[in-house]
Design goal:
By secondary structure, the protein is mostly helical. 48% of the residues are buried. The chain has 18 helices and no strands. It has one domain (37-226, 293-441, 461-498). The radius of gyration is 26 Å and the shape is globular. It comes from Rhizobium esperanzae. Keywords: Membrane, Phosphate transport, Transmembrane, Transmembrane helix, Transport. Pfam families: PHO4 (PF01384). GO terms for molecular function: phosphate transmembrane transporter activity. Belongs to the inorganic phosphate transporter (PiT) (TC 2.A.20) family.
Length: 499
């Protein structure tokens, strides 16, 4: 029997089509991952064009445009890393979706940066390294090196899922570049001591306020026989406190210094609080109708306050952390003689817009990566706990912005999350009110916990993950020296190549 001839053509195109389809799917997957970096690169290019419109006919235009590009890149990294502070708790508590959280954060970041960000920008741009004692030509390169070093470190930290402090990064970078350029003389060590002390105290304050708020919520609402009636009474009060405190801050921020005496500001805050209470009361009453007397029902009643506190925190973050991006840019602009009549440290509006828009672009493109860590993985958050975290962080950051202190919103927010978690551990074991409540609800209650077999089982039952605590603390500790050393090296390279 003669051999059958070899078949040189395929009888069907199915296999080839499957391969082509698979290749197309892979290409789409790869391109999807490149969309965010590509849009970020487009934003940096638009930032350069935006800055060029204002400075193209000035002698130092090239340096300012380059600094604007670095400031835009830095602002995007701030938005990517620090967005967890604003909405991580709300997303972790499932009070809003990721998309809703990002949109709210983006809008209020811009408002906070443009309305209330000027005072902290002044500290970063001219108070850490004395701008008067440093030659203007050198000051511009110091700030350029600081921007690049801080942005690179924050970018690396975001990629590693580490919520580091962008404030630590830029302050460390300014000091490192300044010392490498002109030595230690122009460094204002008094201001540095004030900033460093605020870094230590602000997370503790945030944690204590969050724990105190949670204690009030548990005492006044959660461990009451009629939870819904208690919530109808106290949730409007919480909303009024939040609105009144924020309005008092806005009056202080937007009015000329000394325009209103402290008593007037307090009365304005109380007045706005009363109006907010009257507005929130019917909304809460309508939401509470037909709800069962259960803890899960309280989540619906705390959704509105939690969204409000997340928006307030985004405003506070924009007011404080925009300085990390545009503070150095402001110094470069004034060193080039383009700052106008505001003096050193007073940024032009277009400089503030670069920082505000950059933070919003960064959080929209890259923000979801760290939201889950702070919102879900440190300790379990429901809307009540998340509200305590967001409100305590917002008030702490607002007070710091009013005082001109560039505090770390990351430190405060994470400190508040840990404060809530550690308080829950203590309260679960020690609260007499909780024990009495559980006794009333259960047929029997055993006060003495059964003996646990080993320490590993005990640690597994903790409400706060200690591994995240140690990782985050380690990232905080190394941020200042790493960013400072990197800025010093970048300054030497820039000086060798361009100066």
């Amino acid at each position: 029997m003669p051999p059958r001839p070899a078949v040189l053509t395929k009888r069907t195109l199915d296999k080839d089509l499957d391969k082509i389809t698979h290749v197309e799917d892979v290409a789409k997957h790869v391109l999807r991952r490149l969309v965010a970096p590509g849009l970020g690169l487009i934003f940096v290019g638009l930032t350069m064009l935006f800055a060029g419109v204002y400075v193209f006919d000035r002698p130092g235009a090239t340096l300012v445009v380059a600094a604007a590009a670095l400031a835009g890149y830095m602002a995007m990294n701030i938005g990517a890393n620090d967005v967890t502070n604003n909405v991580g708790a709300a997303v972790g508590a499932r009070a809003m979706t990721m998309g809703q959280a990002l949109v709210i954060a983006a809008i209020f970041e811009v408002l906070g940066a443009t309305i209330a960000g000027g005072e902290v920008v002044k500290t970063i741009s001219s108070n850490i390294v004395d701008a008067v004692e440093v030659p203007e030509a050198i000051l511009g390169w110091i700030m350029m090196a600081a921007l690049m070093a801080a942005a690179l470190w924050i970018n690396l930290a975001t990629w590693m899922n580490a919520p580091v402090s962008t404030t630590h990064a830029i302050v460390g970078a300014v000091i490192g570049a300044g010392i490498s350029a002109v030595g230690t003389e122009p460094v204002n060590w008094r201001v540095m001591i004030e900033i460093t002390s605020s870094w230590i105290t602000s997370p503790l304050i945030g944690g204590l306020i969050a724990a105190g708020l949670l204690y009030l919520v548990k005492t006044l609402i959660i461990y009451r026989d009629d939870k819904i009636a208690a919530a109808r009474r106290w949730v409007p009060v919480l909303v009024a406190t939040m609105a009144g405190g924020f309005m008092a801050y806005m009056v202080l921020q937007l009015s000329p210094p000394g325009r209103f005496p402290p008593l007037t500001v307090i009365l304005i805050g109380i007045g706005i609080g009363l109006v907010s209470w009257l507005a929130a009361r019917p909304l809460v009453l309508a939401q509470a109708r037909d709800l069962e007397n259960r803890n899960s029902s309280l989540r619906a009643l705390f959704r509105l306050p939690l969204i409000g506190s997340a928006a307030l925190l985004s405003f506070a973050h924009g007011a404080n952390d925009v300085s990390n991006a545009v503070g150095p840019l402001s110094a470069v602009v004034h060193s080039a003689g383009i700052g106008g009549d505001g003096g050193v440290g007073h940024p032009p509006l277009w400089v503030m817009l670069i920082g505000a828009l950059g933070i919003s672009v960064g959080l929209l493109l890259f923000g979801p990566r760290l939201i889950r860590l702070v919102g879900e993985e440190i300790t379990k958050l429901n809307p009540m706990r998340a509200y305590c975290v967001a409100l305590s962080t917002a008030f702490t950051v607002i007070v710091a912005s009013w005082l001109g202190l560039p505090v770390s919103t990351t430190h405060i927010a994470v400190g508040a999350v840990f404060g809530v978690g550690f308080f829950r551990e203590w309260y679960t074991r020690r609260s007499k009110r909780r024990i009495a409540y559980i006794r009333r609800k259960a047929d029997s209650w055993e006060l003495d916990e059964p003996e646990e077999p080993n320490i590993h089982e005990r640690r597994r039952r903790y409400l706060v993950r200690r591994s995240h605590f140690m990782t985050i603390i380690a990232a905080w500790i190394i941020t200042v020296p790493v960013s400072g050393a990197l800025a010093a090296m970048i300054y030497w390279v820039m000086f060798a190549l361009f100066v």
